[in-house]
Amino acid sequence: MAGAYNILEPRQECFNEVPLESIDLIIIPGIAFDCKGNRIGHGMGYYDRLLKKKNHTHRFGLAFEFQIVEIIPSEQP
Known about the structure:
Elements: E1 25-28, E2 32-33, E3 39-40, H1 46-53, E4 58-61
């Protein structure tokens, strides 16, 4: 079934929800990253809200070198 942005997603009955506490690694997409852990995404805030809930998970943002910038202005948490 097509979901947001017309991307195919599994049917609701196929979901197997995993408790957030059991996640050890989150791979974070982004358009740009800085060395302080700030990122620019696609503006929906999903990952930002998720990361506020879980502070002790390993987080990796995969990026090309041109996506790493010196500073991304951000608000204090």
